[in-house]
Amino acid sequence: MTTDPPVLGLVAGDGLYPEYIVRGARRRTPELRIVAVGFKGETNPAVIPLCDVYKEFSVGQLSKPFSFLKKNGVQNVIMAGGINPKNILSLRPDLRALSVLMRMPEKNADSLLGAVITEAEKEGFTILPAFTYMEEHMPQPGHIAGPRPTPEQWEDAVFGMQMAKEITRLHIGQSVIVHHGTVVAVEAIEGTNNCIRRGGELGNGKPATLAKVARLGHDMRFDIPTIGPVTIQTCAECGIRQIALEAGKTILLERDRVEQLCKKHKISLHALQLPEQDGPSPSDRPA
Amino acid sequence: MTTDPPVLGLVAGDGLYPEYIVRGARRRTPELRIVAVGFKGETNPAVIPLCDVYKEFSVGQLSKPFSFLKKNGVQNVIMAGGINPKNILSLRPDLRALSVLMRMPEKNADSLLGAVITEAEKEGFTILPAFTYMEEHMPQPGHIAGPRPTPEQWEDAVFGMQMAKEITRLHIGQSVIVHHGTVVAVEAIEGTNNCIRRGGELGNGKPATLAKVARLGHDMRFDIPTIGPVTIQTCAECGIRQIALEAGKTILLERDRVEQLCKKHKISLHALQLPEQDGPSPSDRPA
């Protein structure tokens, strides 16, 4: 009796995250066959030669990628890396995606991804947690790089994490920029780097804090918030001097390079533990 | 026995709002003596000749404006018009303002204004509602100008109002831009027009909705959200085709000009009633 080698399906969005998944998977299970779905203009070309099979689709297609994965014997799927929200807004859905969209009352990034996962499960796929093979890249609570935060910075970090968490409760975004106890910028769909640029400008070049969290009640099959050297570089250019990440729920890519950049630009980077459910809901908050 | 003419103190921020207060007050009480505090680079110069006494101070001064108002016999004060949040961030507080700031855990625009009001009341001033003399400029529920919203637009308007209200609950801002059920931009301290510009761009030029509300549990002594021709013009340039205001709690300046602009640019402008705690009921839909 022969056993076929296990097969992993990968839905590969932008950035380095899909590449990390593939490398982590190869390290742990060398015989793994990786079948990847990519998106034109989104998927990092570096991931392509690392997969056994790779095919590109348009954002908004559901039927064709499902068929492609099935044809290649995929049962387990990881979804990794984001899709530029601008492309989500201008997507051209196929019939199946259209029928999903029609049933959705709110069309934010979270609900879109959730709907895609539901459809994939109806097709018989199992969606694995997005941190599979990524555990070593998810910082635990504590200081990561750069100078230790001052007490004032620490206050802004805790405040920023709480505010960012409330923003995820509204399904809007996952980052805020804080400056001396004031939220100066909220990320909606413009992306973290654009939010950093705005928050830095609005802070009049004075040091500010980026707080980035996972969604409240985050479904770990979803794309996980990620930062890497580009985030640090953008922060350095825009007067952000502190980055607070949610411990155990955000991914830090290229840690060595990140540590160098934080040291060079005197950016304090640390991970905070945030209790998941016991924060007051917006309706509990005194006006 | 002689009766001195009544005196009104006016703390005049930016825009047309202080001018409207003065004109409304003069119409209702011609003998009123108006003593105004202004801010360099903020207060519209048009208001100056309309006041009996006017003096400019720096943002962040408290002691001197208080003395000035007292010396001029002021008991009742209206605070009208905003201060550019960038100037709030870079304010140079006098000793009294500094002691207020030190006691504040969160320094957002709401809490700053609240603290200023508390200090003013300690000094014996009475802060009148910011809508005093402005009632005629606060739209009641219904259609105001431009085309009637489509059912899809109406859904975005209701959703946007709810989301903007939640954002005020977090003391962040009062406006959001919505595009087909997605919040594409949240206003923090960049100001409504900058938020409109970002939301318009992110919507890829497709028609979007601006929803603007008063704070949840809004203290009516605070500056009231205001729109006027500049807002409409900015919306027209940025692909916003619908503006939803909170009925009875937002101020519409230069209504004639606003109506012309909405007609010209096919922008649907209407006011929605939003119950403080629940979403708007379907019956609020403008007929």
TrEMBL record, chains A, B:
<feature type="domain" description="LpxI N-terminal">
    <location>
        <begin position="8"/>
        <end position="136"/>
    </location>
</feature>
<dbReference type="InterPro" id="IPR043167">
    <property type="entry name" value="LpxI_C_sf"/>
</dbReference>
<protein>
    <submittedName>
        <fullName>DUF1009 domain-containing protein</fullName>
    </submittedName>
</protein>
<feature type="domain" description="LpxI C-terminal">
    <location>
        <begin position="141"/>
        <end position="269"/>
    </location>
</feature>
<dbReference type="InterPro" id="IPR041255">
    <property type="entry name" value="LpxI_N"/>
</dbReference>
<dbReference type="InterPro" id="IPR053174">
    <property type="entry name" value="LpxI"/>
</dbReference>
<dbReference type="Pfam" id="PF17930">
    <property type="entry name" value="LpxI_N"/>
</dbReference>
<dbReference type="InterPro" id="IPR010415">
    <property type="entry name" value="LpxI_C"/>
</dbReference>
<dbReference type="Pfam" id="PF06230">
    <property type="entry name" value="LpxI_C"/>
</dbReference>
